[in-house]
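Problem: given the chain below (1187 residues), write out its structure.
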Amino acid sequence: MKLKKLEIYGFKSFAQRTEIVFNEGITGIVGPNGSGKSNIGDAVRWVLGEQSAKTLRGAKMEDVIFNGTQKRKPLSYCEVSLVFDNEDRALPMDFAEVAVTRRVYRNGESEYYLNRSACRLKDIIDLFRDTGIGKEGYSIIGQGRIDDILSQRGEDRRQVFEEAAGIVKFKARKEEADKKLQRTLENMERVEDIIQELERQLAPLEKQAETAREYMELSKELRVLDLNLFLLKHDRFKERIAELDENLATLNAILRQNEEALAEKTAARDQQQTLIEELEGRITAARNELMNCADRVHTLKTERATLASRREAREETIRRMNDEQNDARARLAELEKASSEQDGGLSRQQELLNAAQQSLRDATEAQERLAREETEKEQALEDYKAQMLEAMNRSSNLRNDQTRQTTMRAQMDSRLQELTAQDAQLAERLAELQTAAEAAQELLRQAQESRDQLAASHQARQRELNDCDMELNRLRQGTQEKMGQMQSAMSRLKLMEEMQREMEGFNQSVKRAMSFAHQQGMTGVRGVLAQLLTVPQKYETAIDMALGAAQQNIVTEDENTAKTLIEYLRQNRLGRATFLPMTTVRSKVLNDRERQALRLPGCLGVASDLVQCDPAYRGIIENLLGRTVIATDLNAGIPIMRAGNHSFRLVTLQGDVMHSGGSMTGGSVQSKMTNLLGREREIKELSASIEQEKANLARMRETLNDRQQAKDSLKQQVSEAMEKVHQEEIAVARETQRLESAQGELREQQERINAAHQAEEQLREAIAQLDAQLLALEQESTEDSYDPDAMQEETRRLQGVLTQAREASAAQRDQVMTLTLHLSDLQHELDSMQRDQHRVSQEMEQLRHDLTRRAGQISGLTELTAQDTAQEAVLQEQLAQREQEQTEQESRVHQQEEGRTQAQAVLKQLMADMEALHSQYSADGDKQHRTELARSRVENDLKVLQDRIWNTWEVTYAGAEAERITEGFDATAADTRAAELQTRIRAMGSVNVNAVEEYANTKARYDDLSTQREDLQKAEKDLRELIARLLTQMESTFVENFTKMQGYFAETFVRLFGGGHAELRLADPSDPLNCGIEVIAQPPGKKLQLLSLLSGGERALTAIAILFAMLKLKPTPFCILDEIEAALDEANIGYFADYLVEYSKGTQFVVVTHRKGTMERCDSLYGVAMEEQGVSKMVSVSLQDYA
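Solution.
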C-alpha cells in the first residue's frame, strides 16, 4: 500500500480544487512562511478523522473551511480526499484503489466517504487500524513531536514514549474502566439509600394493607344490606306516587268543568281583543306613514343643503386651478430658456473629452514599450545570478567538511558562553524562586481566609433559601386547599345549573309544557313563576309556603298562549298545569284598614313587596302574594292576624301559615332540595363565590410566583456563593500547587546549577579535541579559483541598468494614471450636463401635460356647477309638496286613536266579568297543586334515595335488583346491622384503600433493587479485576516495546551522528508505568551526557533519532514530516537527509521543509505559493530533470 494522491478543495487557504500526486521515495513541499505548506499535513490529519480543532490550529471545526478574502467569497464547505494504491490488499477492501473523503459544512455537519460511498468515522478508523496510519500512528510527524521529546516536563516526554510503545489504547481503556467503577460505586450508594428508604416504608404499608382488606370486606357486606333496604323503600315510594296520581285524576275532572264555563267569556274577550288589535295595526300603519312623510321632508332639505355646499366648493376649486395654470405657464418659459443654453455647453464638453482620449492612447503605447524593456533587463540579471550561484555551490561543496567542523567548534564555544552566562542567570533565578515561594505562601494564606468568609456567606444564604422553601410549601398547600374548595363549589354549581336546565322538582306536566313551548318557539310563554322571581334567602321558606303549588304556574302573555299549551297537554295525556295570563290576572292587595296591622311588632311586610321581579309581572305577583303578610314567628303573627280580623293570609319565616278565616298550618319543612325559589339565588351566589375564589386563587398564585421568583433569586445567590466558594477552593488548591511548584522548581534550579558546572567541564574537553581535528582538516583543504568580486561588480552593473528601466517605466505609468483621471473627470462632467438636460426636458413635458389636464378639469367643474343650480330648483318644488302630505297624514292618525279608545272600554267590562270566574277556578286549582306538590315531594325523596345509592355504590334500581334478597329479609335487622357496619367503618378512620396495591408495588421494587445491588457488586468486582489485568498488560507491553525502542534508538543515533552512543533509561525500572524517561547521548568525540546538556542542534538531531526509532517500532506505509529538521545546521542536515533517503526504500515520505540539503534529496518537489493574498497554489518540479 502506498499514498497515491491528495485532493483538496476549500480546506483552509486552498480555495481552489488542488491535486497533489505522490510518487515513491521522498516528496518535498517547499515555500515561504505563511504560504500554507503545513495545511497539507493538516488536511491529511483531518481526512483520517482528527476531531480536535486545536490540533488543526483552529478554535472550532468550521475554521478549516476557506473563510474568503477581499476578492473571494467564503466557501460553504470544504472537502479532502486521500487516495491509496491498494494493489497488495493491505487495506481490507476488494479495490485496487481506495479513496477516503471527508466533507464538512459551515453548520458543523460532517460527511465521510469510502470510494465515494457514504460511511461513518468509525468505519474509517477501523479500516486503518493496525496499519500504522491514523491519529495514533506516526504517519504525520510535526515540530510538536520534537518539542515534546525535548520538553523538560516529564509528562510530555513520557506521553510520546507511551504512544510509541502502544499502551495508549490500554491506558484509555483503564481510564474508562475507572470511570465505570466510579459510576458503579455511585449507583451502589444510591441504590443502597433507596433500599433503606423502602425498608422503612414496608412495615407501615403492610399494616395499612391489612386495614384496607378489612375495610373492603365490611364495605361489601354493607353494600348488600344497603341495596336491599333501598329496594324496599323504592317500592313504597312508587306505591305512594300511584295513589297521588288517582287523586290528581279526580281533581282534573273538576277543573275541566270550570274551564268550560270560562270558554264563552273567553271567546267574547278574544273577539274584542281582535278588534282592538286591528285598530292598533291601523294606527301603527298610519303613524309609520306619518314618520315616512317627515323623513322625506328631512331628506329633501338635506339634499338641498348638500347641493348648495358642493356648488360653492366647486367654484372655489375653479379659482384655485386658474391660479395654478398661470404659475405653470411662467415656469415653462423659464425652462425653455435654460434648455437652449445647455445645448451649447454639451458640444464644448464633448470636444474636450475626445482630445483627452487621444492623449491617453499615446501614453499607454509608450508605457507598454518601456515595460518590455524592463522585462528584458530583469531576465539578463536573473541569468547572471544563476551562473554565480552555480560557481558558489561548487566552492561550497569543497569546503563542506571544513564548514561542518568549524560550525561545531562555534556551537561549542557558543554553548560554553551560554553556560557561563547561565551560571549568573541561574543564581539570580534561584533568588527569584525563593522570593516567589515566600509570596506563594502569603497568597495561600489570603486565599484560605477568603474561602472561609465566602463559606460563611454561603451558609447564611442557604438558611434563607430553606426558610423560603418552607413558606413556598405553605403557600402551595393553601393554594391546593383553595383549588379543592373551588372545585367543590364548581361541582355544586354544575349540579344546580343542570337541575335548573332540566327543571328538576317541577311536575312532569309543567316540564312537558315548557319543553313544547321551547320547541315550537312560542314567544308568548314567559316562564315558570318560580324562575321569574328573585326572593331574598331570608324569605325563601315563607314565600315557598305562601305560594305552594303556585310556584309551578306558567306565566303567559295572554289566554290564547295558555289555551294552546292546555290543548297540547290534553291531547297527549300529559297531566294538568296552571297558567297565569298577564292580560287576565289582576292585582290583589291589602286595603288601608288591613294595612294598619302591618305596624305591629314582628311584621316584616307584605310578601309581594319583599320579592323582586320584572315590572311586567308585578300584577301576577300581587295577585298571588299581595294579600299575604310575612311575620317573624307565630308569636308575632297571631296579634297581627287578630288586628286584621283574619281577612288576609300570614306566613312566618319558619314556614307556618295562618290562613284567612282562621285556620293554621305548620310543622317541619321539607329538604331544601324541594325549594324551587332558592335555586336561582344559589346559582348566582355560587357563581359570585367561584369568581371571588378565582380572584383569590389568582392572587395566591401571584404571591406564589413572587415567592418562587424570590426563591429562584436566592437559589441563584446560593449557587453564586457556592461557585465563589468553589472558586476560592480552587484558588487555595492553585496557590497550594503554586507553592509546591515553586518549592519544586527551587530544588530543580539548584540541580540545574550543579549540572551546568558539570557541563562546562565537559565542553572544554570537547573543544580541545575538536581544535585538533579542525587543524588537520585545514591542511587538507584547497581554495577554489572563482573571483567573487568581479561577479559582484557585474551584478551591480546589471542592477543599475534594471533600475533605470524601472524608473522610466514608473514615470510613464504615472503619466498614464494622470491622463486617466483627467479623462474620468471630463466624462463625469459630461454625464452630469446630460442628466441636467434630461431632467429639464422631463419637467417641461410634465408642465405641458399638467396645463392640458387642468384645462379639462376646469371645463368639467363649470358644467357640474350649472347642473347643481338646476337641481336645487327642482328640490325646492318637491319639498313644498311633501310638507302638505305630512299635514294630511297627521289628521288621519287622530281619527284612528279615538276608535281604539271606545273598543278598550268594552274590553274592560268583559275582563271584570271573567275575574269572578277565575277566582272560583283558582280555588279548585290550589287543591290540585297541593296534591301535585305532595307527589313532587315523594318524587324528590325517591330521587334523593336514588342519588345516595348512586353516589355511594354507583348502582341504579335495575342494578340493585340483581342483589335483592327474595326470602328471609328482615328490614329492621338489616337496618340495625347496616348501622353497626357503618359505625365500625367510621371507627376505622381514614383508610388508604390503595395500600394493598402500594404494598405489592413497593415490595416488588424492593426485591428488584436488591437484585440490582447484587448486580452492581458483581460489576464492581469485575471492573477491579479488569483494571488489574490492564495494568499488568500495560506494564508488560510497555517494557517489551521500550526495550525494542532502546535498540532501535541506539542504531538510529549512530547512523545519524556518524558514530557515538545513545540509550534510553527508565528512572525507576521497578515502576515503568509512572517513572520518568531519561535520554542519554554521546555524540562522536564527546562524553556520555544527558539530553539537556547537548547543544541545540545535537538535541534536535537526537530527538529525530528517537522519532525514527519509533517509526521503526511502529512502521507506517507513508510518513509526513513537517519541518522537523528546522533546528539542524547545514552539517547535520546532510546526515538527516542521507538517512531519510535510506529509510525511504521501505516508507514513502512527504517532507515539508525550508532546508536546501533536504530539498536536494527529494525525488520530487511541490512549491506552495500565495500569488493571491490568502489563497494557496501548488507548483510542481522534478529534480530528476537536472540530474
